[in-house]
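Q: I'm building a small set of examples for a reading group on sequence design. Run inverse folding on the following structure and report the sequence directly after it, with nothing in between.
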């Protein structure tokens, strides 16, 4: 992943969401110039906020990668998705946003997908899901996060259907960091 400038002369700011694993967080933030981070990690790992990210620009949603309640784990809930949407709607989009979870495969890909759906309501869910699959062969969005986002955004099951249509991603230990564009 090479360094690039998120500003393209004459075109304004590009709106990009970068997805990575916890292990690649610092590197991804540094290489992309991101100034906002969403962490989707329960208590299985400590998240050290990159030093260039101010505390107000870091949202840590404490939840686990599960789709049904399980003793000792935090199931993604409506409040988590509401907090995500409130945070990304405040993102000034002058620099990229990084979304990560432990492996970068499920919680973060679902949240990046939901973010694009929330911030670009006129964009078709299927086109966003296809863009997600083109960007990452391993993306396997957490179905509960997608379902909650679908309901909150009033997308009538279209988000879920689009994710089901792209199918499960390839198995991997962690995601190769990738970019999903808002437009």
């Amino acid at each position: 992943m090479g360094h690039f400038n998120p500003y393209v002369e004459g075109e304004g700011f590009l709106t990009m969401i970068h997805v990575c694993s916890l292990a690649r967080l610092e590197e991804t933030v540094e290489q992309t110039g991101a100034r906002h981070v969403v962490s989707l990690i329960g208590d299985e790992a400590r998240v050290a906020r990159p030093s260039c990210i101010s505390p107000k620009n870091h949202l840590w949603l404490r939840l686990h990668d599960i789709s049904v309640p399980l003793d000792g784990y935090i199931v993604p809930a409506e409040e988590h998705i509401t907090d995500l949407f409130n945070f990304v709607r405040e993102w000034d989009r002058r620099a990229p946003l990084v979304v990560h979870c432990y492996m970068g495969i499920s919680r973060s890909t679902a949240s990046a997908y939901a973010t694009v759906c929330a911030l670009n309501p006129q964009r078709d869910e299927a086109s966003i899901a296809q863009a997600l699959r083109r960007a990452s062969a391993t993306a396997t969005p957490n179905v509960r996060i997608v379902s909650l986002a679908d309901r909150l955004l009033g997308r009538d099951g279209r988000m879920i259907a689009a994710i089901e249509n792209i199918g499960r991603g390839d198995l991997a230990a962690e995601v190769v960091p990738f970019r999903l564009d808002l437009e």
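Strands lie at 7-8, 12-13, 16-21, 36-40, 58-61, 97-101, 178-181.
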